[in-house]
Amino acid sequence: MNNPEISIIVPVYNVSQFLPFCLDSLRGQMAPRKMEVILVDDGSTDQSGQICDKYAKQYPDLFKVIHKTNGGLASARQAGLEKATGEYIAVCDSDDWISASAYSQLLNFARSNDADVVICDYNCVYDNGDVSIVRMNLEHCLNRDALLKISLSSNKYNSLCNKFFKRSIFTDNNLNWTEGINLGEDALMWSRILCLPKLKVAYLPKAFYNYRRRFGEDTYTNKLTTEKWEQLKRVHEIRKKLINEKHLVDSACDVVFAGLRTEDLQNHILKQFISDNIKFVRLFSFKPKRLVCLSAKLCGLSFTKFIIKKLYRFVYK
C-alpha cells in the first residue's frame, strides 16, 4: 500500500471529555488511506486510551494508536513523528478540533505553492462560548528573517497546530522535539525550523484550527510550577544559541511573565533571570509583556504579581 499523503500527530493525555469531538473532526477530513491519524496515548489514566482503541478498531484505515508511558507532550509528539509516513505532517492537540476539509485545502495549497510550510489562521474558543479569530496577517512577512522576527515578538505566531509541514523538514534536518520540554516546545521547534536555510513558507488566510482555551482547568499551560518555569527558561537559553540575543527581548519577557504567575518559584531565582536577561533600555515599549517586565524592575515582584492577577487575559497575548 502507498504511503498516505498526510500524517496527523495527536498526543493524548487525560482528555476523555473532549477527545471524541477532536477525533470526529479528523475522521471527516479526507478519504481513508490518503491520511493517517497517529494517536499517541501518553499514559492516560482516564478513558482516553480506550477511546483511541475504539476509533482505531472502528476506522482501521485512518487511526493508528501508540500506547506509551507518560513522558510529556514533547515525547508524545516525537513518538508520533517517528511513526509518521506521510509526505506532509500536522499536529493537533487532543482537546482541540479541525474545521471541515481543512487538511485537503492545506495539502492543495502547499503543493500549488511548492511550500515547505503553510500557515493558517485559527480560532480561540473560550469557556463561556466566545470565539475570537486570530489572524496571522502574514501576506507581506513570508521571508524567513521577517517570520523569525515576528514570531519572537508574539506568542500567537509560535503554535505548530496552525501549520502544515513537509515531513522532510524534520527528517532531512534531524529536527526532534526535546524531551522534557513540554511548555514552550512549539516556540522552540518553530525557531529551529525558521533557522533552516531556503525555507519556503506560504500563508493561507483561513481559520481552520480551533483552539480550546480552558482557563479554569488544570491544563498544562494554565497551572505553572517551578519545574514548568524551568522548561521555559531552558527554551530561552536554547534560543540564545540560535538567535542574536538582541532579538530575544520578548522571549525573555515571556519567561519573566510566566515566573510572576508561578506561585512556588522563589523570588531570588526570578530576580537573577531578570538581571541576566532583561536590559532596562529595551523595555520602554507599549507592549504589555515589556511593561510587565519594566514594572518588575521598577516596582518590585510583589506589586507586579498583583497586577498580573488582575489583568492576565489582557497581558497574555
Task: Please characterize this protein's 3D structure.
- With 317 residues, the chain is of the alpha/beta class.
- Helix content is 42%, strand content 18%.
- The chain contains 12 helices and 9 strands.
- The protein has helices at 19-27, 48-58, 73-83, 102-112, 144-153, 168-172, 185-194, 226-242, 249-260, 267-277, 288-299, 301-315, and strands at 6-12, 35-42, 63-68, 88-91, 97-98, 117-126, 131-134, 163-166, 201-213.
- Strands 1, 2, 3, 4, 5, 6, 7, 8 and 9 form a 9-stranded mixed β-sheet that branches.
- Helix 2 links the parallel strand 2 (35-42) and strand 3.
- The radius of gyration is 20 Å and the shape is globular.
- The model has no long low-confidence stretch (mean pLDDT 90).
Summarize the structure.
The protein is of the alpha/beta class. It has twelve helices and nine strands. α9 crosses α11.
Q: What distinguishing features does this structure have?
A:
single chain, 9-stranded mixed sheet, 12 helices, 9 strands, about 20% strand
Set out the fold topology.
Elements: E1 6-12, H1 19-27, E2 35-42, H2 48-58, E3 63-68, H3 73-83, E4 88-91, E5 97-98, H4 102-112, E6 117-126, E7 131-134, H5 144-153, E8 163-166, H6 168-172, H7 185-194, E9 201-213, H8 226-242, H9 249-260, H10 267-277, H11 288-299, H12 301-315
Parallel strand pairs: 1-2, 1-4, 2-3, 6-9
Antiparallel strand pairs: 4-8, 5-9, 6-7, 6-8
Helix pairs in contact: 5-7, 7-8, 8-9, 9-10, 9-11, 11-12
Rg result = 20 Å
Mean pLDDT, to the nearest integer, reads: 90
* Class from secondary-structure proportions: alpha/beta
Based on Cα principal axes, name the global outline. Answer: globular
Report the span from N to C terminus. 45 Å
Q: In total, how many beta strands?
A: 9
As a percent range, the share of helical residues equals 40-55%
| Uncertain spans | none
For the largest beta-sheet, the strand count, sense and barrel status come to: 9 strands, mixed
Strand content: 15-25%
Number of helices: 12
Order of helices and strands: EHEHEHEEHEEHEHHEHHHHH
